[in-house]
Structures are given as C-alpha cells and as structure tokens.
Write a structure and sequence with these properties.
The complex is a heterodimer of chains A (387) and B (89). Chain A is of the alpha/beta class and 387 residues long. Chain A has 15 helices and 9 strands. The longest helix of chain A is centred in the middle third of the chain and has 18 residues. Chain A is globular. Chain A starts with 18 loop residues before the first strand and ends with a helix. Helices cover 36% and strands 17% of the residues of chain B. A 3-stranded antiparallel β-sheet of chain B has the order 1-2-3, covered by helices on one side. In chain B, a hairpin with a 2-residue loop joins strand 2 and strand 3. Chain B is globular and about 35 Å long. The chains are: A alpha/beta (387), B alpha+beta (89). At the A-B interface, loops of A face strand 1, strand 2 and strand 3 of B.
C-alpha cells in the first residue's frame, strides 16, 4: 500500500519520495522475453561504485525515502550487495531484494540476513519447468525452487512474483498453488507491461480478453478460499480496462529510480521517453533532482495535461495514466493514455487486442510458440542498438 | 468457541517493523514494499506490544502515562484491528 499524497489545490507540492529503486546492474543471467529493461542495456557499462550507491542511499533517506528495492538486472551480480544492504539497514530503510534467485546460495542468503535484509521477492516465470525455462531462456526452475526453500529457512517474508502473458495466464491456478506450497506470504501476479523487451515481443505475449477474464475469475475464487494465507496481487492489464491507472501513483510523487549508470528515473521506463534530459546522480544532488529537475517536474501534478484530460473530472484519480504508453501508442508523452476510452487514440489499443484474438494465433494449451521471440540477451541488445 | 479479538499478551509481528519516520512526522509500520502510517495513539499502543505485557496492564500503563481514564475501548479496538491485519500476534 502506498501512502496517499496530501491533496493540494494549485501548484503541485513536492512530497518526499517513498520508494528508492536501486537498479544495481543491467547484467542478468536470465533472458526474459518480457523484461522492461531498455533494449540497449548492454551499452551501459559504467556502473555506480559502492561508494556512489552509499551516497545515493544517504541522500534518498534524507529526502524521506523509506522503502528501498535492490533490483536490476540481477542485483546478486554485484558482490557489494551485502555491504549496500548493511548500509541500508543503518539508514533505517526497509530493504527489498528483487531477484531471479540465481546466485542466492546459502552463504549469501545468511550474509544478507546478517546485514539486515528485510524481504526477498523471488521471480518465477511459470508453474512448470518447461515454460519457466523457455521464457527465461535458461534452466533455472529447479534452482528457484531451492532458493524459495532457503528464503523460508532463513525466515524472510517472501513475495513470489510471476509476470503473466498469454502463455502462462491459463496456469494462474497452478501458480497460486505453487506459491501456497512454497509458503509465500504474497504472490504478485504481474501482467506484462509493454515496455522495453516486452514491447518488442508484444504480438507474442498479448493475451486474449477471455484469458484475462478467466484468470481474474480464478484469482477471485482462490482469494475467497485461502483468505490471508497468501495475499494475491492481481492487476488487470491496462489494455483490457477502459480507464488508465494512476501510473507511479503520480509522476515525481513517490517513485525515484536510479539506473546502473546513475541516471535518475521518474518511472521505470523513463529512459525511453524523449526530451526528459535525465539528470545523473553523479552530477547533481538527489534533493535537487527530486525537487527541481526538469525530468521530475515534466508531468508532476496536472498542469502539463492536454485535452481530454485537462477538463476531465476523473483526472485526479488516474492522473492521465502512463506517459510511456502515451508516447508509444499515441506518439506524444503528454497525450492522454490511449488505454482511456476518452482518448481519441483508443482504437490503437483495441487493434492490439483484436490482433491477439486472431484465430491463427493458435493457442494450443500455451505450448506451441510459432513466432520467434526476441530474448533479452547481450547479443540481441548490441544488435538492436546498432540497428 | 469464537476466535479472540486479540491475544492476551500481544507481540508485534516480526513481519512488520515499527519505526518513527521524520519525513512523515509519524510512526509507520513497514512491510514488503509497503507502509502504514500510524496516528499517535496507535503507535503508543503498538509500542506496548512486547509479548510480555497483558492487555489489562497496557491499559493501566497508558492511562497512567497520559493521565486519562476510560481508554480501554479505544485500546481494545486498535488491538482488534491490529490483530486482524496481523500487525500483532
């Protein structure tokens, strides 16, 4: 649950950031087809040093950030993770490790516990070994099962995360069963968000409306049955709603991301938005970035909105939706999110949904994948960047 | 037998961390990727939940400390809410 920003008439007030997402590295042993990382991630090599991350954490904490996510890429790829976790604990952050599990052996999980790590979010790609390993283009399913047991053995709260799309939506019941069996306190059933690699693979990943509704029904059934045993977080994918979500709970409102090279991100995908001129934590103090930078003020509050958002009586609820979706689908980052049925560009979203339900898409129990999927690999990143 | 509304000697759940947040000017409960802001009295009650103090004693301690009587219904209400949300066990 995110804190509700105080309602303020007139100019947007700047609330403290709530969530610092530290993307420690873009390097990752997995090659997931739905990764939101930028396509050209492999060109980013000048990662922040341990000392630079410590400074970022101190500055963010002084600004009021309280939740800290260590992510990436695979954060365990950094051998200074334990040191960063210890500093996070000293600063009073609640620290979350967002991991594929690869690299989390017993030595490291014990060291992280000693350092004060609060929680581990472990990703699975599916409830079956076959699809998990296919979608991540690795053999990692058995290892993830082992890691899940270690997480419980070391008494961490565990959030299991599974990104959903047309191939595993029919397995939602099985995925919930797996989370229950592994003792996860929360299961995040995260429908694919179409940025980065996921956008490249959108035609292959986009589910049908029937799949989404059926998965929703299954989740509801389990919620009623299991009560508090495991909290099921399932958010209907944007494309299948007629109002957008309040992306990031408002731009420059609660979320502050820092990319491996120090670029400060108002949203996960901000690197792909034009004209933001993202500030870098190596050059500018975090307080100045958060309060004064062009990038963090570009879509803060309501003043930037165009019609139909500007005069819409629902603008306070969804804040115009997602800027990245507006840019990718409507060609203008300041446009109304085309997911909204009031957007003049809604037909572009409907086209994508219609395309997903075409008969030749041939969903054969989620097993047959005819079109080539572009996996997130260093080689693919380099060739896309050069293209 | 129906489930009690709260434990006889409530303890903070190890799944939540209670701490003062300067930027929020309030106590908060932290849990995976989330936060609950607490009002002043909720924080004072939860701070008493050490797993060794019976509810009667929590009521009398707080009444003494804040020089008030009749706090029991509010305290029990908060404890029931906290138990329901698994903040205490």
């Amino acid at each position: 649950m995110l804190p509700t920003p105080a309602a303020t008439p007139g100019a947007p007030s700047v609330s403290p950031p709530f969530w610092l997402l530290a993307e420690l590295t873009y390097q990752c042993p997995l090659h997931c087809a739905f990764c939101y990382n930028p396509l050209d991630y492999d060109a980013v090599r000048n990662e922040l040093t341990t000392g630079e991350w410590v400074r970022v954490m101190r500055e963010a904490r002084a600004l009021g950030a309280v939740q800290l996510g260590f992510s990436g890429g695979e954060p365990l790829n950094r051998d200074d993770l334990e040191e960063l976790v210890a500093e996070a604990r000293r600063l009073g952050f609640y620290s979350n490790l967002i991991t594929s599990g690869v690299g989390l052996n017993e030595t490291r999980i014990a060291a992280l516990k000693n350092a004060g790590l609060d929680h581990i979010q472990l990703s699975f790609q599916d409830s079956t070994r076959e699809l998990n390993d296919f979608l991540s283009s690795t053999r990692t399913f058995d290892l993830k099962m082992k890691v899940a047991k270690l997480i419980k053995q070391y008494d961490y709260p565990m959030v299991m995360n599974c990104v959903l799309h047309r191939y595993n939506l029919p397995h939602v019941g099985k995925i919930i069963e797996m989370a229950l069996a592994l003792g996860a306190e929360y299961l995040e059933l995260a429908n694919t968000q179409y940025y980065g690699w996921a956008m490249k693979n959108r035609a292959q990943l986009m589910p049908t409306l029937e799949q989404v509704r059926e998965a929703e029904r299954v989740v509801e059934e389990y919620r009623a049955r299991i009560g508090d045993a495991c909290k099921l977080l399932f958010v209907v994918p944007d494309y299948f709603e007629n109002r957008p979500k309040a992306c990031m709970n408002g731009w420059g409102s609660v979320f502050l991301g820092v990319a491996p090279d120090g670029a400060a991100l108002p949203c996960h995908n901000a690197r792909a938005l034009p004209g933001l001129n993202l500030p870098n934590v190596r050059d500018v103090a975090l307080s100045e970035i958060w309060r004064d930078s062009h990038a963090f003020n570009a879509y803060r509050g309501n003043d930037w909105m165009q019609e139909p958002c500007r005069s819409c009586d629902e603008k306070g609820r969804d804040l115009g939706g997602c800027r990245c979706q507006a840019f990718m689908l409507a060609g203008d980052a300041a446009a109304t999110d085309p997911v909204c049925s009031k957007s003049p560009k809604r037909d572009r979203v409907d086209q994508v949904i219609r395309f997903a339900s075409r008969p030749e898409a041939g969903l054969d129990g989620g097993q047959v994948i005819e079109q080539p999927i572009l996996f997130r690999t260093n080689a693919n990143s380099r060739s896309l960047n050069g293209a | 037998m129906s489930e009690p509304l709260f434990p006889a000697m409530p303890a903070m759940s190890r799944r939540f961390r209670l701490q003062w947040e300067e930027a929020q000017q309030c106590h908060v409960l932290l849990y995976p990727e989330g936060m609950v802001k607490l009002n002043g009295s909720a924080a004072e009650i939860l701070k008493c939940c050490d797993g060794q103090t019976p509810v009667d004693r929590i009521v009398s301690d707080l009444e003494t400390r804040f020089e008030k009587t009749g706090l029991r219904p509010d305290i029990e209400g908060l404890l029931a809410h906290a138990y329901q949300h698994k903040w205490i066990e």
